[in-house]
Automatic annotation (TrEMBL):
The gene is wecB. Residues 22-364 form the UDP-N-acetylglucosamine 2-epimerase domain. It holds the Pfam family Epimerase_2. It is an enzyme of class 5 (isomerase). GO terms for molecular function: UDP-N-acetylglucosamine 2-epimerase activity. The keyword Isomerase applies. The keyword Isomerase applies. This is UDP-N-acetylglucosamine 2-epimerase (non-hydrolyzing). The lineage of its organism: Bacteria, Bacillati, Bacillota, Bacillota incertae sedis, Caldicellulosiruptorales.
């Protein structure tokens, strides 16, 4: 059996690791252990509950308004204890958070194999997003096997000197998750979401990037308030991230507007079904840039760069940056120009076909010599390089 230690700490990692955990647990070739760092506490627990995941180890590191230093140090030290106890054949990390990098570094010091899920995303700008661009680059340098969601991600890794035989193009596991969560007659857990009039143009908003704290975040919120003032057929729904840097600014600028609904973070099935009922999505999130295009919803990205250019190439995502006037102009156009809107509102799936977890499992079986043929790659992203 392949003793596999899956480690993650934040909401998006959990959402994207959940289908892979299920896939590996259902295969008798794998002995699966789950370790959560709990870099996020409440937002992680929300996901664990929905997918009924019971971690074998919970490092419980979250502190109020924590620093990158404390997260990094705590993960490295506490994960060492888990590694010593479990002696896994392979550690699987996900994406680009500080949990990702620090747990990969800890696993490297322990000299165990490491696999990187969602490998190869790049903006080529060290500080955007910060610290994620360096987290994922450094993680790639530490890993032995790389599960690239798209062809473009694979090409990025090849350029950094990663060997082709160690890269598998699998699609993104978030599309596997969407298959479970999105339903036609869905009833929301959050009662406010059941009371919304979806014949209005509902705009789902999220924002939490560190490089946007301060003025850029204020610009974003002022643009939203301005749009809500101008359009009375529009309703903004904003599940506010628990980071205090985000919450304080959101409360100050957006609370008490009749067309802006601020709510706490919602469960992932609520979120996916909310996107499915929205007119468009405004976000600086990574995951939403993958989910919304799959659901046929245009995305306006509130950042200067994106590591997910596939949907920009397919014209369902526009990068608006954090300039207040620019955000207002881009969103206004999508609210008033039907032709422009319908050009962007088509479902595309450059990020996956719902079988990424199975491909990752097959790749692991191949890597450890349990199967002879290299698994077929995900081809749906080949046009977007
Ligand atoms: C982290 C990741 C980011 C990812 C994001 C997903 C890093 C450096 N950042 O950013 O890449 O996109 O998660 O959401 O790895 N908090 C709570 N409860 C929670 C979660 C957060 O109270 O469940 C508050 C705490 O005060 C915490 C703060 O938010 O200290 C910041 O959390 P942290 O994980 O450091 O940063 P995020 O902005 O969440
Ligand atoms: N999400 C959620 N509840 C919310 C807001 C977001 O479940 O209230 C989901 C969202 O659908 C996506 C993921 O969380 O799957 C994105 O997480 P986040 O934006 O925090 O991180 P990023 O993707 O930017 O790393």
């Amino acid at each position: 059996m392949i003793k596999t230690m899956i480690v993650f700490g934040t909401r998006p990692e959990a959402i994207k690791m959940a289908p892979l955990i299920k896939e590996l647990q259902n295969d008798s070739n794998f002995d699966v252990r789950v370790c959560v760092t709990a870099q996020h506490r409440q937002m992680l627990d929300q996901v664990l509950e929905i997918f009924d995941i019971k971690p074998d180890y919970d490092l419980n590191i979250m502190k109020h308004n924590q620093s990158l230093y404390s997260v990094t140090a705590d993960v490295i030290l506490k994960f060492e204890e888990v590694l010593k106890k479990e002696k896994p054949d392979i550690v699987l990390v996900h994406g680009d958070t500080t949990t990702t990098f620090a747990s990969a570094l800890s696993a490297f010091y322990y000299r165990t194999k490491i696999g990187h899920v969602e490998a190869g995303l790049r903006t080529f700008n060290k500080y955007s997003p910060f610290p994620e661009e360096m987290n994922r680059k450094l993680t790639a340098a530490l890993c032995d096997v790389h599960f690239a969601p798209t062809k473009r991600a694979k090409l990025n890794l090849l350029k950094e000197g990663i060997k082709e035989e160690d890269i598998f193009v699998t699609g993104n596991t978030v599309i596997d998750t969407l298959k479970y969560t999105v339903q036609k007659d869905y009833k929301f857990r959050e009662p406010i979401l059941n009371r919304i009039d979806y014949t209005k143009k509902v705009i789902t908003l999220t924002a939490h990037r560190r490089e946007n704290f301060g003025k850029p975040l204020e610009n974003i919120f002022e643009a939203v308030a301005n749009l809500a003032d101008q359009f009375d057929d529009v309703l903004f729904v904003y599940p506010v991230h628990l980071n205090p840097n985000v919450r304080d600014a959101a409360e100050r600028i957006l609370r008490n507007h009749p067309r802006i609904i601020l709510i706490d973070p919602v469960d992932v099935d609520d979120m996916h079904n909310l996107i499915a009922r929205s007119y468009l999505v405004l976000t600086d999130s990574g995951g939403l840039q993958e989910e919304a295009p799959s659901l046929g919803k245009p995305v306006v990205v509130l950042r200067d760069t994106t590591e997910r250019p596939e949907a920009v190439l397919a014209n369902t995502v526009k990068v608006a940056g954090t300039d207040k006037h620019n955000i207002v102009d881009v969103v206004k156009r999508l609210l008033t120009d039907e032709e422009e809107y319908s050009k962007m509102a088509h479902a595309i799936n450059p990020y996956g076909d719902g079988f990424a977890s199975r491909r990752i499992k097959d790749a692991l079986l191949y890597y450890f010599g349990y199967r002879k043929e290299k698994p077929e790659e995900f081809k749906g992203s080949d046009l977007y390089v």
